[in-house]
Amino acid sequence: xxxxxxxxxxxxxxxxxxxxxxxxxxxxxxxxxxxxxxxxxxxxxxxxxxxxxxxxxxxxxxxxxxxxxxxxxxxxxxxxxxxxxxxxxxxxxxxxxxxxxxxxxxxxxxxxxxxxxxxxxxxxxxxxxxxxxxxxxxxxxxxxxxxxxxxxxxxxxxxxxxxxxxxxxxxxxxxxxxxxxxxxx
Length: 185
What we know:
Elements lengths: L13 H14 L3 H14 L2 H6 E5 L6 E6 L2 E3 L3 H10 L3 E5 L5 E6 L2 E6 L12 E6 L4 H10 L3 E9 L2 E7 L5 E7 L6
Parallel strand pairs: 3-6, 7-10
Antiparallel strand pairs: 1-2, 2-7, 3-7, 4-5, 5-6, 8-9, 9-10
Helix pairs in contact: 1-2
């Protein structure tokens, strides 16, 4: 039995109306079914998914850079930590071959676990603010330099890929990672 439907009026530009009608024909769907499909897909995205991606405009270039938040928690025992987070609903996505690092997710939210103590000499605490970036870290580093961002450590090769370290306005260390999937286990 089909679900009851009701009318929903919206106002769009003539060009958008034309494009959506053509798309409806291309998809072999009624206009109502196509609009419902698009709205349903949009609404199924959680607020977390949309908020998890930050677009950072730089002062000089005004280009937007997309980075994904990936907090990191230092743990004493990786096995116990993975067991705990799995029991409260996390899915283990991947980790380093040596078992020192793992990435878990809770839906669209990711949490990194690192099995070694924080380094206070680098302003690391039990919890780190990390980001993952898919583009060129060297280019991002240059944009940050031009924007007056403090570079703590330039882009360097790490066991998991590459990392750029910057400092926020309060002196907190922020790490931006470019992860090489071939290095996962």
